[in-house]
Design brief:
Blueprint: E1 10-21, H1 24-32, H2 40-53, H3 55-58, E2 69-76, E3 80-91, H4 96-118, E4 123-124, E5 128-133, E6 140-141, H5 144-148, H6 157-180, H7 184-189, E7 191-198, E8 204-206, H8 208-221, E9 222-233, E10 239-250, E11 264-276, E12 279-287, H9 289-295
Length: 298
Amino acid sequence: MRDVSEKNVSLRVAVARSCVEMPPEVLLRLKARTLDKGDALEIARAAAILGAKRTWELLPLCHPIPVERLDLHYEFGVDRVTIFVEVATHARTGIEMEALTAASICALCLYDMLKPHAGTNLIIRETLLLKKTGGKSSDFERSIESVTSGPSAHPSPLARTEAMSLATRTLLENYYAAFNRQDWTTFLGLLTDDVIHDVNQGGREVGKAAFAMFMEKMNRSYSEQIVDIVVCSNDDGSRAAVEFTVLGKYLKTDEGLPEANGQTYRLPAGAFFDIRGGKVARVTNYYNLADWLKQVGA
């Protein structure tokens, strides 16, 4: 073990990075924190902290030094999450190994928690030291070019296309999930401010406020759940179509329609969407009004 007893105590800082590559649909679940094993991002953060503090037990010739600060953050790409760890201490030797161990353990923890969803379609990419300061040796900082170059730094065009299409499908699944649980704050938050709403066999309304008023009116007369949802989108995720079934109950007489007395109905239906900036910019709904009238006894 190297003798560091003659060295001066000084502030030591190190920054390390690692990366886990995965299918785009798994990345979306990771970001949404809906994995089977739980919130992988926070569990992996805890694992990184434990790894940094116990580095000296894992590496036989590494000095035990106190971890006084550890900051970890994630950056998300199309098909990967990149882990950045910064560790600081006041000690007689550097803290690079604690930073590298924390980044590595974080990546391994994510790998373990992602396995039920991705199987073997997971790759831990380069783990490397980005920066270190403190001590008698010269400070070090890796050039950004060396980090971002190479075949693993940029996802393929196909991966980007798949991710954009998948993001749209996920958006619309969340849209109908919010509708079903009557979470109108989340539901309206998925719309652009200038959203266009084409009402079934009716007119066109523009704006989130108009959409909110429409939903308030509908909720007074109808209780509905959307089931059997199938979402399709184009390659870049800018347009989508959804087929579904409406299970409903007619609660209160709607103006110009038959009298309500609690009738139930089951309607095949569909909707068409424009997507802009990760939100719904247009929705055009369609169902067979004659079928609905027949079911409620008109």
